[in-house]
Amino acid sequence: MSSHTASRPVGRELYTPDQRARRDATRWTLVQGVLAPFQFLVFAVSLVLVLRYMAAGEGYLAATVSVVAKTGILYLIMVTGAVWEKVVFGRYLFAPAFFWEDVVSMIVIALHTLYLVALIGGWMSPQALMITALAAYVTYVANAAQFILKLRAARLQSTPTGALA
After folding, report:
1. Is 50 in contact with 133 (CB distance < 8 Å)?
2. With bands split at pLDDT 50, 70 and 90, how would you rate the model's confidence at 16?
3. Above 70 in pLDDT, residue 163?
4. Cα dist. 103→92, 98, 110, 139 in Å?
5. Element (H, E) at 89
């Protein structure tokens, strides 16, 4: 078997045995495991603050700070996630096993970055900024769902029978 063939998952498996071993051995797996729920917590708080501002017109500063914080954590998890993908799959982004998750992640990053650029540049009203943040959050939720489904599939594949024990 060539090394090229050995580096690709067999059939519909998410990881080859070598990739699974690298995933389990790297500290970046733990980093992602800590950052992902932390990012979700920051998102949940921020969502409440943004919705409060949208509904009541109050708390713009708190909502803005929360979106900026969420964006910073997003950038951190994306950089560390790219390093994780490089260690496990040999490329920083768009490894076949996570191609569509990475595509949607780019949309998430683009919307969060649009928010920051518009905020810093003063190019949008507070209302438009919060709508942009909500659009970023909708895509973030879709992307998080992609990753949760992918992790569930990986867990199912890691059991000998392909089912949860």
Report:
1. yes
2. confident
3. no
4. 13, 9, 11, 11
5. helix 60-89
4 lies in some domain: no
CA distances from 54 to 48, 122, 141, 162 (A): 10, 19, 19, 46
CA distance 91 to 85: 6
The pTM for the full model equals 0.83
Is residue 8 situated within a structural domain?
no
DSSP string, 99-112: HHHHHHHHHHHHHH
Quote the tokens at residue 132. 């942009």
Residue 97 has pLDDT above 60, yes or no: yes
Q: How far apart are CA 17 and CA 58, in angstroms?
A: 53
Number of domains in the chain: 1
Residue from 16, 147, 15, 14 nearest 6 by CA? 16
Count Cβ neighbours within 10 Å for each residue of 101-126 and write b for 16 or more, e otherwise.
bbebbeebbebbebbbeebeeeebee
For residue range 38-94, what is the model confidence (pLDDT) as tens digits? 999 999 999 999 999 999 999 999 999 999 999 999 999 999 999 999 999 999 999
Residue-level pLDDT at 102: 93
Domain span at residue 36? Answer: 15-156
In 3-state terms, what secondary structure has residue 165? coil
The answer to whether position 66 is within a domain reads: yes
